[in-house]
Amino acid sequence: MSAFHLTDQQVSFFHTFGYLSFSGLMTDCIDEIESAFEALWKKNGGGHNGQPHDG
């Protein structure tokens, strides 16, 4: 993974709002994350009357 640096604007946004958004950062592993979440959700009883989590 290559290093990157935040812009002054990103740093300012973080100091103001307390978070940063990195669009597309997890794109290559989102299917794996969703599958793991759904398995954990199902294992622990769901919570939406047996319906899958909607997003």
Plain-language structure description:
It is elongated and about 45 Å long. It has a domain at 24-55. The mean pLDDT is 86. It is mainly alpha-helical and 55 residues long. The chain has helices at 8-17, 30-43. It has two helices and no strands.
Layout of helices and strands, plus pairs?
Blueprint: H1 8-17, H2 30-43
| Annotation field: number of helices | 2
Uncertain ranges: none
Q: Beta fraction of the residues? A: under 5%
| Beta strands, count | 0
Distance N to C terminus: 28 Å
Overall mean pLDDT score? 86
Helix proportion range:
40-55%
Global shape? elongated
Summarize the structure in short.
With 55 residues, the chain is mainly α. Helices cover 44% and strands 0% of the residues.
Comma- or semicolon-separated keywords:
55 residues; mainly alpha; 2 helices; 0% strand; elongated
